[in-house]
Design a protein that fits this description.
By secondary structure, the protein is an all-alpha fold. It is 80% helix and 0% strand. α2 (27-49) packs across α9 (162-182). It holds the Pfam family Sbt_1.
Length: 315
């Protein structure tokens, strides 16, 4: 199979970062790329939702929300069993791994488009649903039901963060105007999606390379967890998709979401609610280890396994 060029952009950024080349995108450009990608994913999902039976979708949304809680509890249990981390760090990392990465989801969407596998585009709604439960679980695991900053501040940080607002906003716009209404915006938000994704991955490669020193400091345990847990998360995501009668493409997307870890919403919420946790541990695991693993190995692996198993299970 030919290597997707967007992956090569990630490798270019990662290699340039390791070699300490003078190459960083201006922060304003990175912000713009993030905005366009989030809105693109949201609009695609909204257009699909406009043609979807809402009654049929509600059980899937509930099942996906439960999946976020299961992933968070599973990550927390593994981290605490190791006796390597204090409760606050274990809960913060668990919140990152129960939540999801929009960037990884975008890579999975581009991969499915490249190999020509259809999928439920309304899966973008799952990204929003999965951002929340694990973050709340992480806070409860440390603070109980009374966080230091109060639930109003926590919920504001979770629901009014840039990622959730743009993704949910795109979903609502696509849902309201449908495919016909979005058509005039397609050159920017649909046709140019892979170009924006390539530039976004170039910057992510640079950022991941910049965290390589942190990986060396925290050793083999963090590295092992950040590489093994995505496989467990993908298994949970694939099983959830099968139970929800999703297509092969939808199962690949849900497995990818289960394998991914948040590096936007969860860090902001944990800084506010669990300030004693070390953010370097969570971000390094999520962004410098799990994200590259999913981009380079994980997404093709999840597709290969599900493509082999799914027909035999009736999925």
């Amino acid at each position: 199979m030919q290597l997707d060029p967007v992956i090569l952009f990630f490798l270019l950024g990662f290699g340039a970062g390791l070699l300490k080349a003078e190459m960083r995108l201006p922060s304003a450009v990175y912000e713009l790329l993030t905005v366009v990608l989030l809105l693109s994913i949201g609009l695609k999902g909204g257009m699909e939702l406009a043609e979807t039976d809402w009654v049929r979708l509600l059980p899937q949304l509930g099942g996906v929300a439960l999946m976020g809680v299961v992933l968070g509890l599973l990550a927390f249990a593994l981290l605490r069993l190791s006796r390597k981390l204090p409760r606050s760090d274990a809960a913060a990392i668990a919140a990152h791994y129960g939540s999801v990465s929009v960037g990884t989801y975008a890579v999975a969407v581009a991969f499915l488009d490249t190999v020509g596998v259809p999928y439920e585009a309304y899966s973008a709604a799952f990204v929003v649903v999965l951002e929340v439960p694990a973050i709340l679980l992480g806070i409860i695991l440390v603070r109980g039901l009374r966080p230091d900053n109060g639930w109003n501040e926590v919920m504001r940080e979770v629901f009014l963060g840039k990622g959730v607002v743009l993704l949910l906003g795109g979903l609502l716009i696509g849902l309201i105007v449908g495919a016909e209404g979005v058509a005039p915006l397609e050159p920017l938000f649909i046709d140019a999606f892979k170009g924006f994704l390539a530039l976004f991955l170039l910057e992510m490669g640079l950022v991941a390379a910049s965290q390589s020193g942190t990986i060396r400091r925290h050793g083999i345990f963090l590295l092992a967890f950040a590489l093994v847990f995505p496989l467990l998360g993908a298994t949970v995501g694939g099983l959830t998709a099968w139970l929800l009668s999703m297509s092969l493409g939808g199962a690949v997307l849900l497995a990818t979401l289960g394998a991914s870890a948040s590096y936007i919403a969860a860090p902001a919420a944990m800084r506010l609610s669990v300030p004693e946790a070390n953010p370097g541990l969570s971000l390094t695991a999520a962004l410098a280890i799990t994200f590259p693993f999913n981009v380079l190995v994980g997404v093709p692996l999840y597709y290969g396994v599900l493509n082999a198993l799914y027909p035999a299970t009736g999925g």
